[in-house]
Amino acid sequence: MDKSELRRIILEILREEAGGCPVKRVDLPSVRCTEADRLDTGDPTHRVYTHDLFSLEESPRLGCGLMEMERTAFPWTLRYDEIDYIISGRLTIRVDGREVSAGPGEVLLIPRDTSIEFSAGEKTRFLYVTYPADWQSQA
């Protein structure tokens, strides 16, 4: 069986489980990050959590998840494109000596191959969308 046939079968099963509809809804306010979602930034004191909302089988091209940070700043180089929609708190991105901050209802675009520092003082929750979906293997 080739990859495209396997993908077709998986999508068919997912549609059947969703009542024949390929669209999936997530109740974002009810999603909570746990210790299992802790992102390894290289510093165990960092309070950074990511929770993917869709699997690679459900969304093979776009990644989407919830990220929570609190009293943390850490460097990161994105090997993927990312859009962040701030739900609560304030997210600051530092790049090349400049800062860009966003609060609830605002959106940030971070292009691929950008070296940044993620920073949040208070508890900050934001939705991230990445391309490609498998951002973890790109990091």
Automatic annotation (TrEMBL):
InterPro entries associated with the record: EutQ, RmlC-like_jellyroll, RmlC_Cupin_sf
The organism's place on the tree of life at top rank: Bacteria
Record field: transmembrane: none
Protein name listed in UniProt: DUF861 domain-containing protein
